[in-house]
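Blinded run. Sample ID left blank on purpose so nobody reads anything into the name before looking at the predicted structure. Input follows.
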Amino acid sequence: MAQGRVKALFDTGFEEGPAPAAVHFENVGVRYGMGPEVLRDLTFSIEPNSFQFLTGPSGAGKTTLLRLILLSVKPTRGLISLFGEDVSRISKDELTDLRRRMGVVFQDFRLLDHLTTYENVALPLRVQGKEETSYRNEVVELLRWVGLGDRMHMLPPVLSGGEKQRAAIARALIVRPDLLLADEPTGNVDPSLARRLLRLFIELNRLGTSVVIATHDFSLMDQLSVRRLVLGDGRLHIDE
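Blinded prediction complete.
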């Protein structure tokens, strides 16, 4: 797919005015049970239309930080705001609406085994109540772009790990999220496809999505001169 076709896939043709930070943390800490804080004193923002890598040694807490942003893990202390909303003060319905503005790719993929690849990718649009005629071509085009055009009618149990990962990425992208969180999204694919997927993330970012990619892959990070959020010893520092 040429770059122009990628743009057409995601472009809405609508431009908005200035927006608040997609994510803001203020002195956030989290612990499990009575143990010490695994993350502490996290203060940072993810701005609209920004692109950043989240990195650090294994066990540093990258997945925990992503889950804090997704609000599937609650902080022990501190303030978290999403899209300008203090999440401690919003209703359950408002929280659901905020989560729908995010696309998420976790390492366990979370595909539904009884649905085909196509159906898994289209599921977020079905949940939104959209008719298949309004999104079928878009889903098919995206599946072709991630190299699953000939696997769209297969069930997840017969897919390889890399194919499942690409399906999970496509499912996260199909909703054109305001914020994309991806945990090691290129960990199970070859370097050529990793570069192709990175181009897709870059194009999505150019069209307005804030992107956070957690990765150990320095060769991937070295392809872009963007901000790095580096976790170590429970703390975060930022390399601009």
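Unblinding after everyone has recorded impressions. The chain has eight helices and ten strands.
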